[in-house]
Amino acid sequence: MALALTSAVVMATASECTIYGLHGAKTTVTFKNYPPFVYMAVFNIAATILEAAAIYLQVGKGDDDDDDGAPKLSRVVLVAIDVVVQALLSSATGAVFSAVVAYGPQISACSGTAGRFCEQVSRAKFISLAASISASSSGFAKDVQLPFSVWPMSSDDC
Hints:
By secondary structure, the chain is mainly alpha-helical. It contains five helices and two strands; from the N terminus they run αββαααα. A hairpin with a 5-residue loop joins strand 1 (17-20) and strand 2 (26-29). Helix 1 (2-12) runs antiparallel to helix 5 and helix 3 (73-102) packs antiparallel against helix 5 (117-143). The longest helix has 30 residues, at 73-102. The chain is elongated, with a radius of gyration of 21 Å. The protein starts with a helix and ends in a 15-residue tail after the last helix.
């Protein structure tokens, strides 16, 4: 959740960059000039909100153990949120990586003395990748039985 939010904030605060072309023509660009960057910022914020809702459902609501075997609504919603978050983060990250390749010359023109735009795009891209990997890993880790417990155990459980 924190990685997705950080990536969105870094991208949304990408500083303006002024590119000077031939004959003194100048162009000012921000992340809003590139639809995949806007897509990433919006989808990472949406993933952050969904993860906050999932944390609330997991921790805040508690989990009453019923023996009837029927899945509770909160468990079904948690699975749906996990899938949607992974889809949002993966597609947003893929879009940004593709955009960096497609718009490479324009983005590279904003490196160095022209501004921090290129560096912020690069940081946001890799933070978004880390968020995507983290979401996928957490979804995998929840479904895999571990030979040890990661939760603190009371003395009664030993």
